[in-house]
UniProtKB/TrEMBL annotation, chains A, B:
SUPFAM superfamilies: Isocitrate/Isopropylmalate dehydrogenase-like. Its main location: cytoplasm. Pathway: Lipid metabolism; phospholipid metabolism. It comes from Denitrovibrio acetiphilus (strain DSM 12809 / NBRC 114555 / N2460). It comes from the Bacteria. Keywords: Cytoplasm, Lipid biosynthesis, Lipid metabolism, Phospholipid biosynthesis, Phospholipid metabolism, Transferase. The keyword Lipid biosynthesis applies. It is found in: Cytoplasm. This is Phosphate acyltransferase. One of its GO terms (molecular function) is phosphate:acyl-[acyl carrier protein] acyltransferase activity. GO terms for cellular component: cytoplasm.
Length: 359, 359
């Protein structure tokens, strides 16, 4: 089972990508195909001692996608980019999973076009792992779909639940619906409707539906999964990252403010490092693009060797554990349990659509 | 100029509310009308030495609103509650501003019904002050409107800009639009349209439009104001508050983990206190409900004496500085500069509606 790695994607490509891939091969023993400018990749492999590893293959890609290229343009014009090439390898079955820290929009667009979506999935979604006081929570979607319909939320819930079950080792992770209050009646027009569908899936045991959660529940770890539209999810993710940055900025300033605080700070270095490590969730690797027919992991543009190593491991593990098989099963189960015989034309409409697309 | 205070609203009412009002009167010399159970209020006034102050009046209210009462029910059935009574005093001109730390939904509903909205405003919105590395930023809406139309966002921008100009002492605060990327083309269907209207207001100088901002810009203080729908705004606000709590939880645990860290922590107590103070924005008082015809400040349910004191001062200051006059002027200016003669029926439709409601 080979992981295909886009060696050219990300701010630190190809160096950190190649080093991360080599580290993954050395530490976990998996096979990797590096895709990109062959000459550059070979040079990096040599400089980090990866050129001797038989488990690493290199596939040349003519073109390179820049971080500010428009996704639709890349989709049409850069068919020989490392992203296209890498995804085609997965499509053909030469690789079991794909990882890229490159242009997120381009990876999403190309993955949807090349790998296609799983049966029953309209739109792929990005799931991010957030740190909580209890461990971690999976938030989905965090930016792939900024305008969502009811069926999209329902699919996010099913996909994220399958993903969380694998990474958290829980059979049925609890799934919360992001809202503005915890009571069942709280929410906007669409989340109130989504609530009914998720309740139905919850009653039937397809997912473990917790109910509504709020922004404050993210770090509390109230539910294992939080379902949210890609707009609010993206805002929540970026606010969270930025809040950590804000606190660390203040800490840095205040700890330098006097001799006593400087001494105190030195004594606290190990504790502060531990906090940084706890708040850092890079060990979960990149964020999977759930719902495409093939494992596809998107890394942060700033991904370094360690982040790449974990992401490659994650891509491999999700393929081994049949993430997509699990999602497909769960979708099929949902289709069975969602009734179309309710006296509610709105409900029936959504379910009909869901079933049509799935079968 | 009297500030009307709902003495019965909030988790710590009436004690902390009365103490806060007394502190505001003593420190800033304003006049206050306390509304609620007269006997209870008099008792609290006596116990904190407020019974001798001539600047404090008490108005009895028969009914009390509970935190979990449904807003629509309160609106109809509890017409003698301290919220109704207090807002009527403002409506009649006996008070210049209203403050309550009670049931937010009830205060919003009653304020809209009793005070009515300002000309040109469809729906009132809540503005929250967030701490940033540069000082503060005003986010609006943070929960009053979970389903927004284009004209609502435009009104939020105008109202929040007026509010920010008063509390930040800037003639034209910069106004950012919350989105999922900073480029002009980023956003969901509705924010992309809102972007065009805000750009037009920016070009005409009614507001200083910065462009799109992202979740990570909240703590950076990229813009003075952030315009957002009440759903994503509420999520952002609660995630922010919760992120601070999360970091402090980790700090507490880690600082207790060894003797060295305990010593370090003791040396850092003053620095940590300063950080807490910087991240705390209670000095800005509660959150104003912008757009109602009368100043109305909503406090946190957990508001203590200090928070109430600042909120009462804020309510007073916003009335003195004619917040609502400023909003009305700005709305009138917008109506003038937004053109209906564009070759875009969608645009014309929104502007027509906006103008009709305003005139």
């Amino acid at each position: 089972m080979k992981v295909v790695v886009d060696a050219m994607g990300g701010d630190n490509a190809p160096r950190e990508i190649v080093k991360g891939a080599v580290a993954a091969v050395k530490q976990y023993g998996m096979q990797v195909i590096l895709v990109g400018d062959e000459q550059e990749i070979r040079r990096e492999l040599e400089s980090c001692g990866g050129d001797k590893l038989k488990k690493i293959e290199v596939v040349h890609a003519e073109e390179k996608v820049e971080m500010d290229d428009s996704p639709s343009q890349i989709l049409r014009t850069k068919r020989n980019s490392s992203i296209h090439q890498g995804l085609r390898l997965v499509k053909q079955g030469d690789g079991a999973a794909f990882f890229s820290a490159g242009n997120t929009g381009a990876v999403m667009a190309c993955a949807k076009m090349i790998l296609k979506t799983l049966p029953g999935i309209d739109r792929p979604a990005i799931a991010a792992v957030m740190p909580t006081v209890k461990g971690a929570t999976v938030m989905c979607d965090v930016g792939a779909n900024v305008d969502c319909k009811i069926e999209n939320y329902v699919q996010f819930a099913i996909m994220a639940s399958a993903y969380a079950s694998l990474i958290m080792h829980k059979e049925k992770p609890s799934v919360g619906l992001m809202s503005v209050g915890e009571e069942d009646v709280k929410g906007n027009d669409i989340t109130k409707n989504v609530f009914k569908f998720l309740s139905e899936l919850g009653k039937s045991g397809v997912i473990d539906f917790y109910g509504n959660v709020e922004g404050k529940d993210v770090f509390k770890g109230t539910s294992d999964v939080i379902v949210v539209d890609g707009f609010a999810g993206n805002v929540a993710l970026k606010v969270s990252e930025s809040a950590g940055w804000y606190v660390s900025q203040m800490l840095k300033e205040e700890l330098r403010s006097s001799l006593l605080t400087k001494i105190g700070a030195i004594l606290l270095i190990p504790a502060l490092k531990r906090i940084k490590k706890r708040a850092d969730h890079s060990e979960y690797g990149g964020a999977p693009l759930l719902g495409v027919n093939g494992v596809c992991i998107i890394g942060h543009g700033s991904a370094n060797e360690t982040a790449v190593k974990y992401s490659v491991k994650m891509a491999h593990d999700l393929a081994v554990k049949h993430l997509n098989g699990l999602i497909a099963e769960s979708i099929a189960e949902s289709v069975k349990v969602l009734n179309v015989d309710k006296e509610d034309s709105f409900w029936n409409n959504i379910v009909e659509k869901f079933k049509r697309k799935t079968i």
